[in-house]
Structure formats: structure tokens, C-alpha cells
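Posting here for the record, re: flavin mononucleotide.
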Amino acid sequence: MGGVVSPMNQSQFHRLFCNNQSPIHQSPITSLAILPAEALAKEGTTPPSNPINMIKTAVTRLPVIDLIKNRWSARAFSDQNLSEEHVLTLIEAASWAPSSINEQPWRYRYGLKGDPVFVQLWESLLIGNQPWAKNAAALVLCTAKKTFTKNGKPNRHAMHDTGMANAFLLLQATQMGFYGHIMAGYDPIKLRETFQLSEDEEDVCIIALGFLGTPDQLDEPFRTREITPRSRKAVEEFVLEN
Ligand SMILES: Cc1cc2nc3c(=O)[nH]c(=O)nc-3n(C[C@H](O)[C@H](O)[C@H](O)COP(=O)(O)O)c2cc1C
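Prediction output follows.
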């Protein structure tokens, strides 16, 4: 299974995921609000205990929240599948990002492992990403609408807002115990042709999703990257004095 999320209307969503809800849950809006909590209850709300997380968890000087500290860009994915419900839950989380005049310029298409959209996305990736991304449980294409819907004028903040949505998406995945890895390493011309992107749609990234595997399933140089601690510039380097 796989597809483009934007055209899915609420009744389709409701049919897919909300068949066994009590009447109070049968309003599409209520169902949409309740789904993520149910998904979380199924998966547990903390990342799996894994020695690699000890290495990868951010070491911060100030008390940053755990969800941010625990997110990292994994490359070793297990063979555990993700469902459409998992992916749509992340995309709903993304949709709650703020955006300029609430334009919500982000667009998502996705494929679960083995389906045609997954294969098309994987084939668009560059050689630095294909070897490990083939084991992802899902691949997500993120694009941005470049103009405002209400007046057709350029939306200068479309990429900013779409990046913010992706940050929400990644944090939701962390909360649900699996991992997302954003990639810009793909062939944008091939991608545009494959998915027939319009002039008004800019490719932003492809996101690999999955549960965590083990570093030994990766070849070099990916294995070393998987066990290397994460680092960041000191805050002083990018907090500027006027
Ligand atoms: C826009 C963007 C493009 C990226 N492209 C790639 C990529 O093509 N391949 C890759 O392995 N990682 C890619 N990354 C992941 C970064 O390398 C990673 O986020 C960074 O090294 C920090 O590591 P962390 O996410 O584990 O904290 C990308 C990240 C972003 C935000």
C-alpha cells in the first residue's frame, strides 16, 4: 500500500481506521483526534531500550526535553513493518505545525516497504542512501507548495514551514518508538518526472522510517556512522550579538 495523502478525505480515513469505534468516536474529527493516542498505546511511548541509544542520545548543557534528545537519524532498520496508520499518524502530527497564514504548504506521498511507491522513491535515491534505505519500513516524499492558495503569490516561507512540519513528524516517530531519517540525497529530476510534480510543487526531502535494527547489518561507512555519537556546535557559535 502507499499513496498520496492530500486527496484522502475524512470519510476515507474514517473507513480505513475507525470501523470499530464507539458512536462517540464516529465523527471523523473526533476519530482523527483520538487515533494517535491509540497508536501510541499500541507501540508504547518510549524508544526501545537499545545500547545504540546510549551513544546517540543528545548530551545537552541545558535541560532540553527528552523527545528532542532521543531523536536521531538511524540507518539500520529492523524488518518490523510499519502500517499505514503509523505513517498517517506521523503525517497528522506534521500537519499541526504552524505555517505562514496557516497555508500548510507541505505535501506527502508515501510507500510501505515493497509497494510500487516505495520502489519508485528508493530508485530516486543516490548511492549514499540506497544501500541502507532499502531496509526502511516506509519511504515518504515531502514536497512544498510554492505559492499561496488564496492569491497565487509566492510563499517565501513554504520551505521553512514544511521543514517545521517534518520536525513534528520526526518527533512523533520518536514518541512512538521508531525512527525517521531525512534525505536530500536523491535525483530531483528523476523524482519530478516519476511523481509528475507540478511547477508549483518543490521537492523538499525523502524520509526513511522504521524500527531500529543493529549496526552490524550495515556495511561501511554506514556502520561507523551508526555508532558515532552525535555532535552539535556550541550555542555560542550561532547566537549572535546584533
Ligand atoms: C535536509 C536534510 C537532508 C539530509 N540528507 C541526508 C542524506 O541524503 N543522507 C543521509 O544519510 N543523511 C541526511 N540527512 C541527515 C543529517 O545528516 C543528520 O540529520 C545530521 O547529521 C544530524 O544527525 P542527527 O539527525 O542524527 O542528529 C539530512 C538531513 C536533513 C535535515
